[in-house]
Amino acid sequence: MSLARSLIDVRPLRTSPVFRRLLIGRTVSVLGGFMTMVTVMYQVWDMTGSTAWTGAVGLAQALPLVAFGLFAGSWVDRADRRRIYLTATVGQAVCSLLLAVQGFTGHVPVVAVLALVAVQSAFGALGAPAAGVFVPRLLPKDQVAAGLALNQVTGQSMMLLGPALAGVLLGRLGIGACYLLDALSFCVAFYGAFGLPALRPRGEPSRSGVHGVLDGLRFLAGHRVVRGALITDLAATVLSFPVSLFPLVNAERFGDDPSTLGLFLSALAVGGVAATALSGSLTRLARPGTVMLCASATWGAALVGFGLSRDPWTGLALLAVAGAADATAVVSRSTIVQTRTPDALLGRVTAAEQIVGQAGPSIGNARGGLLAGWTSGATSLVTGGLLCVLAVAAVATTTPELRGTAAPEPQPEPEPGSGPEPADAATGTVEGVTGA
């Protein structure tokens, strides 16, 4: 296998100028988002000196996504996704601008800062399902995985750069300037999406309100491949997400050295960037389900090794392996979701995927912390990793369609008004996926 084929597949950048511009805008916006995440934490801590208030920042970001995500997805599936995304981007930019104003003036209560964060997150809950249809609508089906990998590698690169850049700019320019830069980053994202064509749903539009949400949930319950992909991700994060355990494991195994603790998260991100940069051969494979299952099991096994390791460098290497496995699983799962879901349902399914991605790590952190309190950090890591491997094996055994080895699954008859039928289970063909 040649090195060129192993490197990330950049065909989408060559074949689709619209995707290229969209990716640039998204990358700049993600950079601004990570800067704001650090800036909000810094400001709230500076205002209160309370870990309870800094913890509330995470709730302000997560609750709107969980509360409104599925309803936002239902709306996205009955309207022009481009227009919704642009509206959400403007809303997020306005919130960042208001954060910048209060950052320069410095005369607002902490509750007002959290309220702005929550409103911005609500706009994000609206924009994410709309953006979820862009890649399969702009790229040929055989380039969808490559487009998702490009999104992943740029996002993880910004996760490395954004917090560090925020730390530098906070000291030199102050809180207000960091928020203002985030507002400007949304302007770049707006420009990147402005040239998109109208992207109305292909097929029967979603019904309004709760009915549309229930239609999306019925699709997830009936489509074994998509359901299995989301269950695999949820199991991996709920059972073995390790971040809350890092301080305790660092104290138990590595002498409570702050420099070691700081490298734990960086190792995960570095592994993710490296794996995505070398994802070319994997994204060209025709079986993303098999890749996802293997990557998710590797994630759990690497965390078991990290929990047993007593050498810092071995531990960091295992975390890098875990980060690489996680990034590979994310790209493969998104490929499954976006190629196996009919366009008219993609907003709702993408919203469900976003909720799983948000809720899973939060629950996993809580699970790991509680178990570590009863036992130890290493025990929590090892048992969580083993449970992850067992859960992935169970999904692989009970959902052979996810491995791409089974015959086509029976297609359920659609209920009246319930939207289009699921995609063909054997080929993943979705009408209009390859349309530009």
Automatic annotation (TrEMBL):
Q: Name one GO cellular component term.
A: plasma membrane
Question: Where does the UniProt annotation locate this protein?
Answer: Cell inner membrane
- Its topology with respect to the membrane? Multi-pass membrane protein
What's one Pfam family here?
A: MFS_3
Spans through the membrane: 21-45, 51-72, 179-199, 228-249, 261-278, 290-307
Coarse class of the protein's main subcellular location = membrane
* Entry keywords, A to Z: Cell membrane, Membrane, Transmembrane, Transmembrane helix, Transport
Q: Where is the composition biased (Pro residues)?
A: 409-419
Q: Where is this region: Disordered?
A: 401-436
> What is this protein identified as?
Major facilitator superfamily permease
The lineage, from the top, is: Bacteria, Bacillati, Actinomycetota, Actinomycetes, Kitasatosporales
